Amino acid sequence: MVQAPLCGGLAPALATACLSLTAAAALVVSLWWCCRRRRRHRAVAAAARKLVVQVPPPASSAQVPSPTRGAPAPLRERLTAVLTTSPVGRHPSTDLLDEVLGSLQLAEGVTGCDMIIVCDGYRSTAADGSEHAAPRYRSGIVDAASAANYEAYKACLRGRERPAEGAVGGLRVLELDSRHGFGFAVKAALELVRTPYVIVLQHDRPFIRRADIPRVVAAMEADPQRLKYMGMPTGTTLGHAYHVLSKYRLTVEPLCVDSGGLQAVPLVQWYDSAHICEVEHYLVRLRVAQRSAARGARRLHRGQAGAGSARGDPRAGRRGRAPGIRHVHRRRAGLRGEPCVGHLDGRDARNGQKFRFARPAVPTLQLPAPPCWGEGAGPPPDAAAGAGARHHRGLPRGRPPRGSA
């Protein structure tokens, strides 16, 4: 008789205590997360300030000193070009790749270097063995027609293989038997590279302005401990300093990387657009990424959580924050200046209007001209049907065409 009211009175008290404990735990976790994030930002800012202090001031002379005594070795012995390609809707035409290859005349010295074209693989069947009905090129998925077009495209590239001859570098085609992604496709090509540096290109990233590639390589050779990666200026890197300031509350200052005034901006992100990188540094980063991917696969196999995001890693194939942000600050930089590398969408046939060095094989789509009716000419029959009539291109909605009642 007495215990029932007692239990009824304890239940609300216990519920209130549990809610209070949960709120207190959430507050402690939030404070811990904020402190951890602030310490991380302070560490990154300290690393960036240390990097800026170590940069020597620009010299008054406009001459760019040679990193080694005597005349430097030819660029072909110091730099190899790696160009990645994968299935797109324009295949079997090679016009997109031809535009990139033609634009290399703006990249001083690159046409004389050896080149490796890496043809990434694709996935044509699903996990259950059925063929894909529609292509999804960004995921490496193709249907039967797209696979046939890509095979014809690769056969055309194989016919272009050549050894180095005179001032023109050699060309080699490397075909991968399965879908690797951008990072691992580059890794497969790096196994064949015999030069200390590599310039990585993509089949939809042409040069749009002249770039002094030998000068960039000379600056990297002069300071190999600090400059491991140099990205070519793009429309995205123009706002990199503002992006870093707004997202990480970190101020990055331009660096002078040679005595001639060549400037670069420290990067906290890995950009897969056109860039020059030390081969050994690239391989080390990709080995780390491969081990991380293997650990993630093992965790998923055991039913645990995933290994985390790969954004910003070379294997991810997209730009993003790299795992070691302080390491990125000390090793990577992007050249300052107007963008010298553009972008062409392989899925858009109208990109042929932007071609400067190749003739587009896919007919350029022309937008239909808006209808125009002269004096005395009446509109189409369905235009005067009233408020429910079909809207015609070129006419404001809700406004009857000229000449209608």
Keyword list:
single chain; 405 residues; 8 helices; 11% strand; globular; Nucleotide-diphossugar_trans
Verbal overview:
The protein has helices at 3-53, 95-103, 144-158, 182-190, 213-222, 240-248, 279-301, 325-331, and strands at residues 79-85, 115-119, 171-175, 197-202, 229-231, 255-256, 263-266, 269-270, 275-278, 320-321, 332-335. It has 405 residues and is α/β, with parallel strands linked by helices. It has a nine-stranded mixed sheet with strand order 3-2-1-4-9-5-11-7-6, sandwiched between helices. Residues 48-68, 297-331 and 364-405 have low confidence and may be disordered. InterPro entries: Nucleotide-diphossugar_trans (IPR029044).
Question: What's the average pLDDT?
Answer: 75
Order of helices and strands: HEHEHEHEHEHEEEEHEHE
Please bin the fraction of helical residues. Answer: 25-40%
> How many strand elements?
11
Sequence of strands across the biggest β-sheet? 3-2-1-4-9-5-11-7-6
| Anisotropy-based shape | globular
- Rg, nearest Å: 29 Å
Instruction: Characterize the biggest β-sheet.
Output: 9 strands, mixed
